[in-house]
Hints:
Two copies of one chain form a homodimer. By secondary structure, the first copy, chain A, is an alpha+beta fold. Chain A has two helices and three strands, in the order βαβαβ. The N and C termini of chain A lie close together (11 Å). Chain A binds chain B through residues 6-8, 18, 21, 24-25, 28, 30, 32-47, 49, 57, 60-61, 64-66, 82, and chain B through 6-8, 18, 21, 24-25, 28, 30, 32-47, 49, 57, 60-61, 64-66, 82.
Amino acid sequence: MKARVTVYPRREILDPQGKAIREALARVGFEEVREVRAGKSFEIELGDLDPARAGERLREMCERLLANTVVEEYVVELEGPARS
Amino acid sequence: MKARVTVYPRREILDPQGKAIREALARVGFEEVREVRAGKSFEIELGDLDPARAGERLREMCERLLANTVVEEYVVELEGPARS
Lengths: 84, 84
């Protein structure tokens, strides 16, 4: 079972890193960029769990360790069986 | 047009951050985690571009600024029109 966890600053929290990237992109000619949110991505390979249990465990990992839920929000996406 | 860009260390490059996270997860009881890759995620809001052009511009952004292609690989995903 493979999953992707994405952690972003909460919408109501300032994202100075995203702002800096947007400005840097504009300076090198990408003026069409309106907004950038900068976050973290974790690709996680799990043992054989059923999807419901995997989702539950991944949310626990986010709450315990991967995200700071005071200032960050997370999204868990299951990507199906591990590639052999 | 909204897009997501994910940047990960190349598979052949060591990912000490991912390894540290896997070990930390195991220590707090998530022994089912086999591997973690730790990367960056950018949610990018673009002006009105057609998807082919948006994909091209996003790949240019990765090559120019968002990824260090010597040691990182990137994935561009288009997510459809901006939410109003």
